[in-house]
Write a structure and sequence with these properties.
304 residues; alpha+beta; globular
Length: 304
């Protein structure tokens, strides 16, 4: 009887501890999804990574963990690193053109605004341009940059995840930072001003007005798709001139919290355009056209 009673009490204590850990994990879920989205460029994969992290956490001894939030962040980072390495080893989603880039999964919102759950996911201005550049980094560079620069994880904690010293981890983040600064400029914060510039771009595209297109583009503008990269206002304007028929049916939307447009064809999402507006001109244009990636997006939110 005594043994039976002891076992029951221990079971209750175990259940109580498990429930408490689950509650604490849920309190950090928003940040963990944010980390995973920046690491993987996909909301669905980010949710998978967070779930995998929970399975690891639920089996771990947390009694000696002083900073639960930081510890959970590193666990999610490790899971994401494994997923990125697996993605590369399987050569997922091979590009048809060598100069193309792997486009991330955008987060779409109506022009009326981003909902609270998306706000948590997109905190710290995680524009599509940033995610596109992150896709060009090695998995270790991406982890070092995301964890340190975006979530303030010390290099001493990053080092064991990537199997390097703290100094080497610092170098990884430094290389990544240079790439990010060169390919993801900080956008104008005024959303109304962004929209004005995007509307001017669409109007010029509808009219096939080359000069008006050049005027709204930064001289060093970069346009990126899965198929390739185009640079310079003249080259991008020439491509946009042939976009007129689609520009006529383009609908305004927020793409990762910034002014963008979506294009539907025959009732299906055909493309998503994300604009990075800097000093009143379009500096970066990221275009997602991959049918499988677009099919995974929730376009019902655009009805809000």
């Amino acid at each position: 009887m005594t043994d039976s009673g002891f076992s029951t009490d221990a079971s209750k204590d175990s259940d109580s501890d498990s429930d408490f850990l689950a509650q604490r994990f849920e309190a950090h879920r928003g940040q963990l999804r944010s980390v995973a989205y920046r690491m993987l460029g996909s909301v669905a994969e980010a949710d998978d990574a967070v779930q995998e992290a929970w399975l690891k956490v639920s089996r771990a001894d947390t009694s000696q963990v002083a900073n639960l939030g930081g510890w959970l962040t590193t666990i999610v980072g490790r899971v994401c690193l494994d997923m990125l390495r697996s993605r590369r080893s399987r050569a997922e989603e091979p590009l048809e053109v060598p100069s193309g880039v792997r486009m991330p999964e955008p987060v779409l919102s109506p022009v009326s605004g981003v909902d609270p759950e998306q706000e948590a996911l997109l905190a710290d201005s995680v524009g599509l341009a940033l995610l596109v550049v992150l896709e060009t980094l090695t998995p270790a560079e991406r982890l070092a940059f995301v964890l340190h620069d975006l979530f303030a994880v010390p290099f001493e904690e990053i080092a064991p995840i990537v199997g390097r010293t703290a100094a080497a981890s610092r170098q990884l983040a430094s290389r990544a930072r240079r790439r990010v600064q060169g390919g993801a400029p900080a956008p104008d914060p005024d959303l109304d001003r962004q929209r004005e510039v995007v509307d001017a771009f669409l109007a010029a595209a509808r009219e096939g007005d080359f000069d008006a297109l050049v005027a709204v583009l930064d001289p060093d503008v970069v346009a990126r798709t899965e198929a390739g990269v185009t640079t310079g206002a003249a080259a991008v304007a020439a491509g946009a001139s042939g976009f007129g028929h689609l520009a006529r049916v383009a609908q305004p939307a927020l793409v990762n919290g910034a002014a963008g447009v979506v294009v539907f064809a025959e009732g299906r999402l055909a493309s998503v355009l994300a604009f990075t507006v800097v000093r009143g001109r379009i500096a970066v244009l990221d275009i997602v056209k991959d049918p499988e990636r677009l099919a995974a997006l929730d376009v019902t939110v655009l009805e809000g």
